[in-house]
Amino acid sequence: MGRSGCSESAFRPPHPAEPRVSQDPPCGARGEGDPGQCLPPSAEVQGALECCLRRRVDAQLPRVTQTLLDMVEAALAAVQTLLAQGMDRLDRHLRGNPSGARLRKEVYAFGEMPWDPELMQACYREAERSRGRLEQLVVPFGFLGAQSLVFEAQDLAQQLMADAVATFLQLADQCLTRALDCHQAAQQLEKVRGRVLKKFQSDSGSARRRFVRGWQLCIFLPFVLSQLEPRCKAELLELEGDILAVGSPALTVEGIYEDVIRGVLRQRIDGELKKALGASDASCTLDSCSEDPWDQAGADSLPGSPKRTVDVSATFVEVAVFIGETGGRVATDHNSDNTTAVLREWLVAVKNLYHSVEWRPAEEPRSYQDEEGPKHWSDARYEHVMKLRQAALKSARDMWADYILFVDADNLILNPDTLTLLIAENKTVVAPMLDSRAAYSNFWCGMTSQGYYKRTPAYIPIRKRDRQGCFAVPMVHSTFLIDLRKAASRNLAFYPPHEDYTWAFDDIIVFAFSCKQAEVQMYVCNKEMYGFLPVPLRSHSTLQDEAESFMHVQLEVMVKHPPAEPSRFVSVPTKMPDKMGFDEVFMINLKRRQDRRERMLWALWAQEIKVRLVEAVDGKAMNTSQVEALGIQMLPGYQDPYHGRPLTKGELGCFLSHYNIWKEVVEKGLKKSLVFEDDLRFEIFFKRRLMNLMRDVEREDLDWDLIAMNTSQVEALGIQMLPGYQDPYHGRPLTKGELGCFLSHYNIWKERMQVEHPEKAVPRVRNLVEADYSYWTLAYVISLQGARKLLAAQPLSKMLPVDEFLPVMFDKHPVSEYKAHFSPRNLRAFSVEPLLVFPTHYTGDDGYVSDTETSVVWNNEHVKTDWDRAKSQKMREQQALSREAKNSDVLQSPLDSAARDEL
């Protein structure tokens, strides 16, 4: 997973300013996610393109490159001279023991330098001198934007000047505030001067590369497109599907065509630019800066980090938020997506909100040489992350920051008081405990003598918040705060590893060892809910897996909290919801349950699932006359299996809601439909897994009527706990996770004895079994044939709850008396295994509300019903299943690193 900081909504700066409006880059300066860079053109197009480039472009490319470089370098050199002269003047005035009024006047004059037309004339003249030579070079290509190009170079130089001046003034203010006298302040300003100039040179190197690349594309791309024969465009029709499959925003052949040509041309331009710069390129790459980083001077102003959306798979990002001086560091590298473009867009919009920033993008390389995939943590990746963290730590120390907060890019910090709460703990290293869909979190409670994770009985009570407080632990990671005011923090380091280090080469273990050697205790706090983090993916996972995993974290957040909205400073791609191949997707919701409706609609929209809202029948609002008019009669002898009560009006309304959908399916002839209730939570990769399942079902031509996504076979297996058993550590009964572990071994024993498993798997259809008794109807797929069978049973005249009726119809209900009233019981029902949905709340959970159980008896409004917390067997079974849901692992393979295992 990439790494980055918290949302700007979580940590607002103390004095926000109006964000600057982003300036659009030159035409053709696309982000890193161009399809032209990831999909080569066909041989036909490649041949024509190479011919055009050799004959018409290659001869001019070096001269145009050098002219553009000369123009921008001359302008930047003039600005650097002005900047140095201005800082020198301030230094001389300070050493001359000036009055406060005179010094303030000089500081004000220095701050106005970038906007002084007379001073900036030198920069303007240098850029203008190259205009004539440039126009002569580009006339053959039909380029008429030379004047705009000159203005862009001037604006770039002026903006870099303004950023450098702002950086100097911020650090100068610190010096003047802390210095004891003018002499000491002058000494400190001399150091600041060097740092600012070094930072300016590095920023200039990155800026000139972007400037030259962008304008070369503006000059050459339209010309190349106009020279290629029309038949080349036709060759790209066969590539359209492949490009769209990898996530290109291009929706037309023309767009694909241009993107492919751009990618090839950009490779040519980058090669020429690299040759032109050669060894003289003084710009700082991330790798070199990791070894010898800039001293943090706060180039641009920014908040903590962007909030990634599901459509933005921001990989390999490292952000450290400098608290105290409200500055930040953003470094991004090894990206195979559009991370850099997203971060840049966000930073430009918000940088004025903070005092200082380091922005360290590196477009190449796109991967590590020793990696197996984008999610593989190779030794090179571990080392690089350590160097990035160390560079950030050093920069924070150099700028005299009081605190530094590290936050991984995929961590969602939801509590706006997180920073204040961590600072109040007064610990050298302290982390907020983050929640996830499993037992995984950002701390360990135990560590082996080799530095690996060790299970301890202390972990689960902390993770579940059965014990609350701040606890001393051997490891925290992903999100944590370091108090740089404490002397002990001076001995902490991320890289290089301690000279006595012999454990696994893993960034979080290396830092934990550093804390141990420095005698700094790590702490994790769980007093409040702070935020969420995803469960780590496997090394073979893809960027699409990562995007969906992060989206699932957002869905989990919404179960008990408001949705984590994307930053308003980031352009979010338009969602394209679809019905996943179903004729209709229904979502049942009571009109008075607006909170559930909004959560479900947001969750379905996030997964790009197009749904039709169906207003549920409110059984509580139905009177006896309405019930009788529908011909509804309760099944003779029916009693709720948990409470011994008859049917409730809530259950009646629930049944009618499903019944109305079955009627619509038949009336409209819908061959296959998907039905959701509004109180479910989705498993990770829900949409993909369901679509794959339905493809397998169709491929095998399976005869099916209903496919349930949330059945439970606990009772069907005849499982009973050993009387009197209690866990020796927690005093609790057997958990569903322990039950699953036992059954895994039990099934192996059964296979060896060739004993048939009660849950019969469907041949050649993965993750599908024959359905067994269940008490949930959260989500299911129903066919036209299945809906006809359900209606033919005439259930209104012998009604029982819908989740009891369905098992009767596929002849798996354990009560034979109920089944005797229905014939035939030939519903072809199947169940997904592992499950794809779970309830948002289990019986007895905080926030648990039931419209079916908290109701009145169906034929007597004076007899109220409710569940009993103390006696509810259903609650105990669902609590066990809840633990299974939270600890289930869809990927079903061990994590690659013990450093990230707490499942």
TrEMBL record:
The record's annotation in InterPro entries points to: Collagen_mod_GT25, Glyco_trans_25, Niban_1/2/3_dom, Nucleotide-diphossugar_trans
Q: Which residues form the Glycosyl transferase family domain?
A: 583-699, 710-756
Which leading EC class covers this enzyme?
transferase
Say yes or no: keyword Lipoprotein present: no
Which keywords does this Swiss-Prot/TrEMBL entry list?
Endoplasmic reticulum, Glycoprotein, Glycosyltransferase, Signal, Transferase
What family does the entry list? Belongs to the glycosyltransferase 25 family.
| Basic and acidic residues bias locations | 869-887
What reaction(s) does this enzyme catalyze? (5R)-5-hydroxy-L-lysyl-[collagen] + UDP-alpha-D-galactose = (5R)-5-O-(beta-D-galactosyl)-5-hydroxy-L-lysyl-[collagen] + UDP + H(+)
Q: What name is this protein filed under?
A: procollagen galactosyltransferase
